[in-house]
Amino acid sequence: MPELRRDPVIGRWVIISSNRGKRPIDFQVHQEMPQGGTCPFCPGFEDKTPPEILAYYPAGREKNKSGWWVRVIPNKFPALEIEGELDRTGEGMYDKMNGLGAHEVIIETPEHGQHLHELAQQKMEDVIWSWRDRILDLKKDDRLEYIMIFKNHGSAAGASISHPHSQLIAMPMVPIRVKQEGDGSKNYYGYKERCVYCDIIHQEMAQMQRIVANNKDFIAITPFASRFPFETWIMPHRHSSEFQDIQKTEVANLAGLLKLVLAKHHFVLDNPPFNLILHTAPLKTSRLPHYHWYIEIIPKLTRLAGFEQGTGFYINPTPPEDAAKFLRDANAP
Amino acid sequence: MPELRRDPVIGRWVIISSNRGKRPIDFQVHQEMPQGGTCPFCPGFEDKTPPEILAYYPAGREKNKSGWWVRVIPNKFPALEIEGELDRTGEGMYDKMNGLGAHEVIIETPEHGQHLHELAQQKMEDVIWSWRDRILDLKKDDRLEYIMIFKNHGSAAGASISHPHSQLIAMPMVPIRVKQEGDGSKNYYGYKERCVYCDIIHQEMAQMQRIVANNKDFIAITPFASRFPFETWIMPHRHSSEFQDIQKTEVANLAGLLKLVLAKHHFVLDNPPFNLILHTAPLKTSRLPHYHWYIEIIPKLTRLAGFEQGTGFYINPTPPEDAAKFLRDANAP
Questions:
Q1: For residue A306, what pLDDT is reported?
Q2: Looking at the partner chain, which of A158, A207, A268 has a beta carbon nearest the beta carbon of B304?
Q3: Is the N or the C terminus of chain A less surrounded, counting Cβ atoms within 10 Å?
């Protein structure tokens, strides 16, 4: 079973996963799966994956057969596992616990070569609904503290299978960045009695310099202190700390804006590798006045992120005002 | 002039540098400088770099000519600049300041193709002395709060010139990871009245599972909650919060251990790209009882670090006990 270990200085939890490649010889450069053919995420190969947890499909389709348009399966090489006891223990001064949790794959489309932004509006909405359905289901498990939904596109961004998919990791602790956002926004709220993210949206709407796109329910901006070139956040106008509180019309507007932003990135940056991360409140909280969920999209354009990772110290060569203008001006086809 | 911007939620400062590549078209894959020939860091090409700030050389050598064995120059494309006013201002709810600071390059050897671990003992010591000399000099500037010394080796780790060099960035604020380490270790000290890093060393010496190498003054370990495979820390046995307090015999023992650890990485991982980062206390502190300087070495083996960067959530496929054993057992030639 994987193990969760806590850094004794910073308090950051790390998954030590021995299910995965681990000897020096295993660190070869990964090849992307060849297009088509033997991809286990393609229709017709449903028996090559663990049995599905959820799928959207027309009436009459048999489970684990083709015909679906969104399909959720357990990760074959999970970073965390759902069976077992939580069992938190010490090892001298160190803390650790069992790597209990869940690791799922959301196959976003049956079409191997399709990009997420190319999904039809309705299908994009269904990807968002599938994220929400899985969160609501896993939230029932009291051992879990946080659910992270993310997408790696392109091998440089960490994708090992090119068929469009996102991932979900449910974990028994709150990751450090989420904790920092919680603490930071709580401090701000304590001082101002306002949500810092709502204030960001107001200022961006007033300044008009870092807006990429906007609709009734969502705004896409390049944040003031962007760490990466073309880093983009999609934020709901309505204050809400939990993604799973999203309303039906909001899902439609999120799908539209997400398609638009990803199409602009694709067009301006020539199909960049990217990471998409859903930031939402920890599971055992509810309607926090200080926190505000959002989606972060980070194109992987520079390799210069080596030491930044170790230090939290970033050098961004593209001012977000310039990035926003490039994206705003792009008429993605 | 570059600009420093503060994230309003987390408090992380970011350098927005418009000296560097910035339009979408500028993000091409960088090529490494070809071996030999036109490398500006090679002897004989001293006029291709800004004038030197410091160099170690035999008597009789002329400044900015060949003959040196360590040479420090300003970075030609600095992330921060030494001229100008500090000028901290707001922009609505956001904070920013001028990108005041220094960005220097330490050329570690005149030999273009040499690896750092191949330096003779004396020459390796001189690289360490040059780091210290530059810190002591820059520390006089009251506008500066922190000096970060780091090395990127290999293009996958962010090096754009392959000639062996490290870098120094002096900045007018404390980076977030350093702040977190300061806060975390202070909390621990408040509770235990002991340095958390000293406790780590004691436990590692007792458990013997994560030691890579050890000598009278320094220990090399793979930390308990390693984020990356083969991540290695080199820590002084003697409690000291500031690297620049290092004593003469300690420099010799650090040079020896650094050569050994890098040789082991080179041998076991087949010349991996890596980042080396010196963690030391902020400039305006002195002899902190809770902080302890150390050197972190992170081989860049996986590309899976995309979303980890955004979340602070790491999955490490190699238990540090295994990594330490591989490194300990390796007889680097």
A1: 56
A2: A158
A3: C
